[in-house]
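Late entry, evening session. Most of the bench is empty. Finally got around to the prediction I had been postponing all week. Sequence below, unchanged from the version circulated by S.P.
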Amino acid sequence: MEVSEEPVGSSDRPGAASLHRDALVMDAASFFCRGYDDDLAASGVDVINVMVPWPADDFDQALQRVEAYYRLVRDEPRLRLMHVAADIPAAKHDGVVGLVMGAQNAHLIGDRLGRLEVLQRLGFRYLQLTYNHRNLIGDGCAEPSDAGLSRFGRDVVAAMNEAGIVVDVTHAGHRTALEALALTKKPALISHANPRGLYDNPRNHHDDVIRALADTGGVIGCSLPSPFNWSGEDRLPTLDDFARAIEYVIDLVGEDHVAFGSDVVVTTGAYPPELSGSLRSDLYLVSGAFYGRFGVEKRVRKVQGIEDYRDLPRITEVLARRGHGEDRIRKVLGDNLLRVYTEAWVG
């Protein structure tokens, strides 16, 4: 692929570190922030898309988890909820970390469109239509039928546009994603997935979906889990493999339509064991070939070079080392996602 003419300094020079500190850094997908700690400070992340409810939560359970985040922000002045797009550069300026609330599954609204307005007023600004399995809206990526959006799902997309909640098709099935992207009138999001044309995993998305996403003005957050960066070799994926996913998207649809969605827990050790256990079958359902070969220990779950949230500056390092210029890296780190939110959110 073509790279910019003026690459930033690589990891053994000060350029990449300085850029990471100066740039607006927005993580399109993370979870389980339990406070401001040394790892979060070291990450250099200014704004985090936090997946607040658990995938199987109903509405009442989701509200309890939202309540917990309100308490967290009340008690921690270095964290702040984001409500309008102008809050994002303000958080960067003020030296606090912004939290954008969202969810990995619209299952929590049941069959009641009015709950979308409630969620928006509570602070939700993005929402995945499905998790891996079918819900009332459409099929997830693990469904063999690939039946697409339901009639209710079509209404949900329109209602999300009206409410200013960004449509996220990350875990959606192929047809569900394409139909949602054809319907949305505002920029959409794939918060954490990679191109399936490069890494053939059911959780990744085919080229036609990425093109349809770009046609909405949206962005795909390339993601760090090893299975989504693995093409079958007898070795663990590395940060360079992750960088190749970003470059694939740039070659396909241009540098204005790619971001990063780490899919890394913010607070080390905060992933609840009961959730990990309940999702273990899904882990093997979409990535069984990878985990069957390498196991499920923490050291293999993310690309080599990323272990905890504090390691995220290495994204900037690897892009700089591979010859990408400052303007492009700034787009990947946060400017592209900020543009989507500026266009899609309402007051």
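Two things to note before I forget:
Residues 326-344 form the longest helix (19 residues).
The radius of gyration is 18 Å.
Will write this up properly tomorrow.
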